[in-house]
């Protein structure tokens, strides 16, 4: 019964609508364990289809925020893959969320894979705003005590010293 309600709620937020779908979000929020696989699948769909994703398809966008709300760490690799797409594709898929919300989305889904964060920050093919957001996540990890001060400082020095290499 609940699985059908979650599926219906997900269907109701899959495409853009003029009215904010408050009730479906409530159902999804109350059934996070059932919703997470569907939301992660929406992110994977956006990665697969990229710029060819239907213009009215919105589930991947909502999924980012819901996955962050749920602290769905199992979806972090897919979110990192999404935000590593080419700049034009990323802009098409999530628009201003890159600058307005990405650090919070990444921080709340961060699964402890610091090497993935570092590799992506160092990838000059990744959007500069996305990489900046990833560095903000690392800064927050330092503030939380999850990343040692010396390690964070050393990494920032490496980034600054290697500026020509990574952009």
Quick gist of this model?
The chain is mostly helical and 167 residues long. The chain contains twelve helices and no strands.
Give a structural overview.
The protein is an all-alpha fold and 167 residues long. The chain is built from twelve helices and no strands. The chain has helices at residues 2-13, 22-30, 32-49, 59-69, 76-83, 87-94, 97-100, 102-109, 114-121, 128-144, 149-161, 163-166. α3 packs across α4. The longest helix is centred in the N-terminal third of the chain and has 18 residues, at 32-49. It is globular and about 55 Å long. The model has no long low-confidence stretch (mean pLDDT 94).
Major sheet details = none
Give Rg in angstroms: 17 Å
Look at the helices and sheets and give the structural class. Answer: mainly alpha
**Distance between termini?**
51 Å
Low-pLDDT sequence parts: none
Helix and strand sequence = HHHHHHHHHHHH
- Which range does the strand content fall in? under 5%
How would you sum up the global shape?
A: globular
Relative helix content: over 70%
Mean pLDDT: 94
Annotation field: number of helices: 12
What is the tally of beta strands? 0
Itemize the secondary structure elements and their pairings.
Blueprint: H1 2-13, H2 22-30, H3 32-49, H4 59-69, H5 76-83, H6 87-94, H7 97-100, H8 102-109, H9 114-121, H10 128-144, H11 149-161, H12 163-166
Helix pairs in contact: 1-2, 1-3, 3-4, 3-5, 4-8, 8-10, 9-10
Question: Notable features of this structure?
Answer:
mainly alpha, 167 residues
């Amino acid at each position: 019964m609940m699985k059908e309600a979650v599926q219906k709620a997900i269907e109701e937020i899959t495409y853009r609508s003029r009215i904010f779908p408050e009730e479906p979000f409530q159902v999804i929020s109350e059934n996070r364990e059932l919703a997470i696989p569907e939301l992660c699948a929406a992110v994977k769909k956006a990665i697969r289809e990229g710029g060819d994703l239907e213009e009215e398809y919105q589930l991947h966008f909502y999924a980012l925020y819901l996955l962050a709300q749920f602290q769905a760490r199992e979806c972090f690799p897919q979110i990192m893959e999404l935000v590593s797409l080419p700049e034009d594709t990323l802009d098409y898929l999530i628009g201003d969320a890159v600058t307005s919300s990405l650090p919070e989305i990444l921080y709340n889904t961060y699964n402890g894979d610091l090497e993935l964060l570092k590799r992506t920050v160092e990838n000059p093919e990744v959007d500069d705003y996305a990489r900046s957001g990833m560095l903000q996540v690392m800064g927050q990890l330092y503030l939380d005590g999850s990343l040692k001060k010396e390690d964070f400082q050393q990494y920032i020095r490496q980034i600054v010293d290697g500026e020509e290499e990574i952009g």
